[in-house]
Design brief:
Elements (H helix, E strand, L loop, with lengths): L2 H34 L2 H10 L1 E7 L6 E2 L5 E13 L5 H22 L5 H14 L4 E2 L7 H8 L8 H4 L1 E10 L7 H4 L1 E2 L6 E3 H5 L1 H5 L3 E8 L2 E8 L6 E4 L3 H18 L3 E8 L5 E9 L5 E2 L4 H4 L9 H10 L8 E3 L4 E4 L2 E4 L10 E3 H6 L3 H12 L3 H11 L31 H6 L8 H12 L4 E2 L4 E6 L2 E5 L4 E3 L5 H16 L14 E8 L13 E10 L6 E10 L5 H20 L21 E2 H11 L2 E4 L11 E7 L2 E6 L16 H10 L3 E6 L2 E5 L12 E7 L2
Amino acid sequence: MSKKDNGQSISRYSFIAGIMTLMGIAVLGKAFYIMTVKHDYWMEVANQRRFDSLEVAPNRGNILSDEGELMASSLPEYKMFMDFKVGGETKDSLWREKVDSICMGLHEIFPEQSAEEFKQHLEEGHQKMSQNWAIWPKRVDYNTFQRVQQLPIFNMPRLRGGFHYEENNARRRPFGTLAYRTVGDMYGAKDSARFGLELSFDSILRGKKGVTHKRKVMDKYLSFVDVAPTDGYDIQTTINVQMQDIAEKAVEEELKLINGDVGVAIVMEVKTGDVKAIVNLEKCGDGEYRERRNHAIADLLEPGSVFKTASMMVALDDGKVDTNRIVHTGNGQIKMHNAQMNDHNRASGGYGSISFGRALQVSSNIGISKVIDEVYGSNPGAFVDGLRRIGIAEDLQVPITGAAPPRIRHPKEKGIYWSSTTLPWMSIGYETQVPPISTLAFYNAIANNGKMMKPRFVTRVLFEGETVKEYAPVVLKQQICKPSTLSKIQDLLKKVVTQGTGKKARSESFAVAGKTGTAQISKGHGGYKVGTMHYLVSFVGYFPADEPRYSCIVCLQKAGLPASGGTMSGWVFHNISEGIMAHSLNMDITHARDTASNPLPQVLNGNLESASIVLDHLGYSTHHNWANAKGNFPFWGDISMNSNKFLLNQTDQGEEGTVPNVVGMGARDAVYLMEKRGVNTILKGRGKVVQQSIHPGAKASHGTTCVLTLQYL
């Protein structure tokens, strides 16, 4: 290569190198400019592409029954919308073609609104070209959401069809309002507990929130987890669903019969103090009974004659008197410290001269108050000390917000008004306030041979099915009184039911012990005689009396006469105790067999799968026609016998949207099948369904109510 060519090459390389050097300097200069002058601007842009510290809500823990059934759980709910702007002309032409079928489908899913109404509503949104037009005004559950999502256009991707939704967790109670005030509730869409166990155990159920941030990567927002959320723990309660259902039905039936205002019932397991059922029904403005306040733990009312047992226990335990002491009650009316004291039978001449023990059996106000006033009149503080010693004044520390301890005055307390009539009236259940659960805990101690248990509502805390904490039964008092005193009280409480005012509570199948009570309800400063007289009628006791398993209190509030604790509350107690004992029987069928007979169980119509499992377990032969059956379990049908073989025959229950035939079924299967079709049910009686008020096959429009009559046959 010539020197001239070599010089030209070097010049070109130098030029290129110079250009590249200038470009590098320019890049470095631009970078320096961005890092300094434009620093704040680009940091703001970066922040717009990054979302820091976004909270992620955990799943709230479940509330379970004593047998692990869901009583409260968080389930997803969906609010559905339509974006009419997406999809362009292609979607619009498809919309005009499919809108009628869409509206017919929506009408089938939501029968309370016609297809024409749906069309008018959706066309309005289409005309406005709304991007967030509500398809249905309320949230829906997952199954309903899936049905809507399968309709034409709604089943297309959002950017083509426009269907979109919001997902929210909602607190649901599978058993409806069962034990509503005790289980508790949440504030709408807020993650905030209102009352009950939901509130008391909120810190356990709530869990811990997580933290994430989002970054935009390749025109997509991606979530990055910084701290994962920790789901809430489950709590297992002592509530038994079957017992709760029995108690609620018994209380509501009596309230409707007597036109009562408030009905309370609590069932407690004697040995552990476990609250197996707790009812708080209150008459609402529309005449229906609902749970609006936890009266069982919060009502501070004068308990009335159920308090007489405590008064007698104190006197017996102090050795002041014996049950054989004779007291003169006269004709049922006497003056005590210039105040009128009456017995409930004064119109028929009173009880005359009776023993102190008999006074408790027949609930004589005069008999109890006269003796207590005679032996403690000079030292009423000793009587109140005795009440506190036996546990009736104990603060039970019930783990539910709103619970109130008993209020029993002491004459030596500062600022306390105490008159000559306070002691005799206190002895018969006035001049003091005791919530129903405290009265029950006292009687439960009597049933438990003197050991007072703290009422227990929650037995354990679980996480993913594993127990992480247990709440053992708590003994509040090892012995509320002397064994000799306890024996006399237990004997008298049995006689209250067999020979006294509590005969309505007794059972032909097992022994019952308890005490009746009827008290006027004070209206505060207005006293007892303002307007219509209001009464608290009660029965509290335990069963079976010889080997107590459960204690129970029933308190009903009503206006006007008649008012009787023995007749009204005693009958509710009878129905609750009979129902519980019948439900809790656990007999092996082999025990009933002998060489002369081959007893067969009575099997009701309904869920054939469940019946087959039970019969197979008991060793009975079955035959079914499921081989050619269409659809999935459960199969529904009737059950008959043929040569000692159970024939399980699947029957047609009609189409969706019609009333099924539930005659011959038990209450559980009948209610399930009815409500699955959208039919509300009202149960009357017990046993199996013998009549339904709406004929099978009739159209099951939304809100339809069918009355099911049940009988034991």
